[in-house]
Amino acid sequence: MFNTLKISILACSLIGLIACYQVKFNFLSKEEKKEGWTLLFDGKTVLGWHIFQKPTTMNPQWKVEDGTLTLTGKGGGDIVTNEEYENFELNLEWKISKNGNSGIFFNVSEDPEFNAPWKTGPEMQILDDEGHPDGKFPTHTSGSSYDLAVPLVKSVRAVGEWNHVRIIVNQGKVTYYLNGQATAKFELWTTEWDNLVLNSKFKDHPKFGMIRKGKICLQDHGDQVWFRNIKIKKL
Q1: Which of 78, 123, 154, 178 is the most exposed place for a label (fewest CB within 10 A)?
Q2: Domain 29-234: CATH architecture, name and number where available
Q3: Is a pLDDT exceeding 80 seen at residue 13?
Q4: pLDDT band for position 55 (cuts 50, 70, 90)
Q5: Cα–Cα nearest to 97, from 26, 159, 174
């Protein structure tokens, strides 16, 4: 009987630990709420998001699965937040499928003159660096300021593992962090920024990176990608 009791106690403890482990996803602590953090994904619904330039639409390829916001296949479309942000810190986690490609954009405009998020919003790249052809181009690898600058360090984890992102945008100063390491630092609307754009694929898009307040965007690049713990704090 004593052994049975010990087993029962251990089982209950294990269940408790599992429950604690699960609750930390898509969850704000009391401290985070005090600091002004807001969840952009509740782990259960797609509320707060819509297809780019389709404010009441969410395509079925974007699903909520096991507490993740998942693009299950091509055709989901790029999704953007309902709300616009100017100065903020964005935190989230992502993992990518084998040979996959995706991205996180900010300051995206849905003005009808722009037919894609990338024509206004700078991107933090998400990639299987080893498997996707873009991995051959340093400015296209994970954590990069896409097509603008090589990551300051290589800190991406293996395919199938979760990666943690922080993007801080404050008064035009931008820093990307991937798994705790700064991978990009730049300042919008400066001569340095203009030079980066002139040497990139965005040189023919005069409004690229010029929007001062816009949407957060998660990209559909045709590959499966998972997101969770998406939260933002206005600065």
Answers
A1: 154
A2: Sandwich (2.60)
A3: no
A4: very high
A5: 159
Please choose, from the candidates 48, 36, 50, the residue with its C-alpha nearest in 3D space to the C-alpha of residue 79. Answer: 50
Distances from the Cα of 99 to the Cα of 30, 59, 197, angstroms: 38, 23, 27
| Residue 20 banded pLDDT, cuts 50, 70, 90 | very low
For residues 181 and 129, is the Cβ–Cβ distance under 8 A?
no
Cβ within 8 Å of residue 209, ≥6 positions away: 107, 120, 121, 122, 188, 189, 193, 197, 202
Residue that has been written with the tokens 């009441």 in this structure = 56
Half-sphere exposure of 90 (CA within 13 A, CB side): 30
> Using 50, 70 and 90 to split pLDDT, how confident is the model at 3?
low
pTM recorded for the entire structure = 0.90
Q: How far apart are CA 162 and CA 96, in angstroms?
A: 8
Q: Give me the sign of the Cα torsion angle 131, 132, 133, 139.
A: negative
Task: Delimit the domains of the chain by residue range.
Answer: 29-234
